[in-house]
């Protein structure tokens, strides 16, 4: 435990040092990155070495009402700590090189202060065992990430994204404060351990209310539909290494919070699992469908994070349903699959965001329709993005497969063991998984195929080249981990399974499940066979062609001799058939200038997808609230004496109410 | 596992490797007989593949290693998939609980690399085919997984080897209607996933009307041979699933099982040929409707088993 605290201190010291040295960018960056890298390495080693003798606890008094510095690392916290320190370590190394270029150099001090604070506060969130401490860490996390989102605050869209993020995160926190106050009022303590032991005493009705509060509060941070609207705005606005951390780790703090809350609430009634499952399916579908029609790479990746959080929620929902109906296999598969997907998503979304950052930096644009042919210019970045795309599509032999395999098994298990109407829940999960999986395939084919392959669509993509060595290294490490965890899913499962046991309230039996035994044993062997077959066939093809004519020619276009890059399929046209299929969910606005006359000189076509949640749900709702509130505007007229009168009237009213209520008992 | 059962296990993949292209020949022969022609020999697909393997290659100047890797990875993926599919003589060599998910995702991997290779040429035709393939797979993949999970529910097994053949035979009397729907949806999926009429036309070379063929326009030589062979193996995989469902019994003798299995496979090929010679290709906007119908059918068959 002391070593983890040393890690936190290193992070904080690095951040403060960077701020203090902010007049000297080079030193500031060195201190900030150095503190972050050292802190993450110490944290990783400390957590990994203490896996055997968990949980570790550490308590100190804190002179804050109900507050105590109560820290604990159990299996669930350890899993999130490892993911967090691991991804943040790589992101910091990437960020050091990323921010050393261009105009960002001037502001090294604040950026590293907030980055290190973000890492440290997330670590504190997963270790906190006291509600006050948890909320303080939660708020530091929200604010430091807000300042990172608004890093490029000279752009109005970034400021707008930051504002939306600030509102959303505080709306979520308001629900969490209500949740924690209700729990504290019910048990008379702000201590998580006390809540856990008191769990069985909570009345079912109020437990349901607490569950809903947690679902909205933590669901907002996780980006579950319909609380996701801030996510696709905020993630693309941040610098790429911050986007990777926000997407890979920070939104998982919402998942962690949900899981921790489940341990306080006792046995779940079936509707909890159904609610979680429903939100999960909605998130998976909405996320991937909107990802499919985005033009901006980072916005696409942000929507895909909504999808992946949805997949995680599907797993948790199935696990909860399993708990309600006493199906231990379903509990184990659901929770293990969800947590394994947490690990996997951190890896492949990490590599994809870092790759997107490299592309944005080198090609000067994030618009898919202006890119193309980047694999030739950026071979390493391109290969890493291809690996990440295959992994996020759950294709063998990459890591995404293992998590989705468990989620599929969970829904099969549910379909097979639940009779009647409850059986429809895992059936819905199955349809949601399969449909969002297939859509994710199309989405990442569109992303990687149209940015990396073919010919460059615009001149901006011509000068691109692979980024600095530190950035290449981090991408390669993440891509290699995607492959490694695909070939050896047993490695992450050893940490994920105990964590799932904690999250499911001890229902999950410790030790390997039958399915994960397959994952650790048989499936990797099949993947090795697949790779061996690829190698064999590639060798055979090379041998067949060794003495033959191999010529290079123009792409076959029905004999047309002058193809230009602009004749390629565009990202919008690639996604169009799917957008048509789901036109109900993806309404588009078209701006057409039709060609006219015999020699048309100008014509244009542009279409944009409407954002229904903003335009049809939140827009009208907030509009109505603001119209309603504006009716009270006559109270504001700027005359101080009238304001004093308001105070006097209020005091008199309260005093008389107090006197009246005092008299009644007599 | 005794030597005999090992041999039995290996017969399935060996049959697939050697006979898969003949199914294509049988379909073509059925179509030519229906059209009143004599037709090419059954072994024509093998002859074509052999010819392509002896040729050199022409590649587009726009392409990268992804284009060359496409056929190689695609063939490797479908070869692995073949090892997951049981045939009537016994379990598949690589059976495990949940292997149907791996089967679906291996086919997805094959599609992924084919689409990437198509996009790598920068051709607008191939981009169009890639876009259509990606769009139609969005509906075909859930339908396949739903169909297979109906079987899982019906047989109580999680592995293809434990649900096709005799286990399916025990499920037929209990849930015949659901399995009947399943046969229909699997057959339409077979047509769709293997680029057959009425979804796609494997013979036309009019780019505007095609899906799969237009994606492989720029491949030649051994790469094209790999693609053709992989396509034949994929058709075999779907046929074997269908035969395992429709002929769910064993005679007890290995030779008789073998004959029965091959007769079933031939019958499915002939059925595909009959469909192809009696139908026109659907308008493209109708294809999603057909596939959605299949998905609904598969979902409905699963709901029938929930009761």
Helix-strand layout with pairing:
The complex is a heterodimer of chains A (666) and B (307).
Chain A: H1 2-20, H2 25-49, E1 56-61, E2 68-73, H3 75-99, H4 108-127, H5 131-149, H6 156-187, H7 192-198, H8 204-222, H9 231-237, H10 240-265, H11 270-292, H12 297-324, H13 328-363, H14 374-377, H15 379-392, H16 400-417, H17 424-452, H18 469-487, H19 490-503, H20 514-520, H21 522-545, E3 550-553, H22 571-581, E4 588-593, E5 604-609, H23 612-630, H24 640-663
Antiparallel strand pairs in A: 1-2, 4-5
Helix pairs in contact in A: 1-2, 1-4, 2-3, 2-4, 3-4, 3-10, 3-13, 3-18, 3-19, 4-5, 4-10, 5-6, 5-10, 6-8, 6-9, 8-10, 9-10, 9-12, 10-12, 10-13, 11-12, 11-17, 12-13, 12-16, 12-17, 13-15, 13-16, 13-18, 13-19, 15-17, 15-18, 16-17
Chain B: H1 3-34, H2 44-53, E1 57-60, H3 65-82, H4 99-120, H5 124-155, H6 160-163, H7 166-193, H8 212-215, H9 221-246, H10 254-278, H11 286-306
Helix pairs in contact in B: 1-9, 1-10, 2-9, 3-4, 3-9, 4-5, 5-7, 5-11, 7-9, 7-11, 9-10
Describe this entry's structure for a reader.
The complex is a heterodimer of chains A (666) and B (307). Helices cover 70% and strands 4% of the residues of chain A. Chain A contains 24 helices and five strands. Chain A has helices spanning 2-20, 25-49, 75-99, 108-127, 131-149, 156-187, 192-198, 204-222, 231-237, 240-265, 270-292, 297-324, 328-363, 374-377, 379-392, 400-417, 424-452, 469-487, 490-503, 514-520, 522-545, 571-581, 612-630, 640-663, and strands at 56-61, 68-73, 550-553, 588-593, 604-609. Chain A has a two-stranded antiparallel ribbon. Chain A has a two-stranded antiparallel sheet with strand order 4-5. The longest helix of chain A is centred in the middle third of the chain and has 36 residues, at 328-363. The termini of chain A are far apart. Helices cover 72% and strands 1% of the residues of chain B. The longest helix of chain B has 32 residues, at 3-34. Chain B is globular and about 55 Å long.
